[in-house]
Amino acid sequence: MLIPSIDLMGGKIVQLVQGQKKALEFENFSEWVERFSRYPLVQLVDLDAAKGEGSNRKLVAEFCGKLPCQVGGGIRSADDAQAVLDCGAKKVIIGSSLIKTLKPAGKDSAEDSEDAVDVAFARGLCERFGIDRLVFAVDARGGRVAIHGWKTITRIEPAAMMQQLGPFCCAFLYTHIDTEGLLQGIPMDVIRDLRQKTSRRLIAAGGIHRTEEVEELDKIGVDAVVGMAIYSGLLKI
What we know:
The protein is an alpha/beta fold. The chain contains nine helices and 14 strands. It has helices spanning 29-36, 47-51, 57-64, 78-86, 119-129, 158-165, 188-197, 211-219, 228-231, and strands spanning 2-9, 12-17, 21-26, 42-46, 69-72, 91-94, 99-102, 114-117, 134-141, 144-147, 152-153, 171-176, 201-205, 222-226. The radius of gyration is 17 Å and the shape is globular. The relative contact order is 0.14.
């Protein structure tokens, strides 16, 4: 299944290259709502909230009132998730807050700290909201999970994160940062390997730019999130 994406920043729809450089921006919201209305699910991400630089909450509510959305960006607590669901989101996407930093006893240096999957937090979310409303984001650069707006690279492997969190979500959203926004395709070998590592629904993002890619992903039971290719007109919908 193709899942169109809407990224919000500064009150506009934008497309960034690898989460940093702005490549495109749009304010014709009604046109994109109309074009995406035929799809059973749309991905909506508040980039300002994700970066801790503000919020597009009113726009999130506006889009959720017109489209069936799974919403992410800056959801760091159960109360944040509740607020997004109250805006009309069908599902919430949670990423960086699923990773916690541990400091060994007797050591205070940041260099001595280790990142770990916060299974207890995931379990608490599942108990409060139910498994069907939770999508866990696994963003990876160089084969390791990246957090905090993709600026911090952990030692955690994507498959390991998925295996620990599988009991508490309905789907994983995997973003291959190395190819995100570049319109060069997503490495299918990586996706195939992850598909074998989890029984949960798997959604892939990161450079998908051809209908053939979407179809190939569909054959192995993986949904495709597409943004840049749609907004640039490369992939027709």
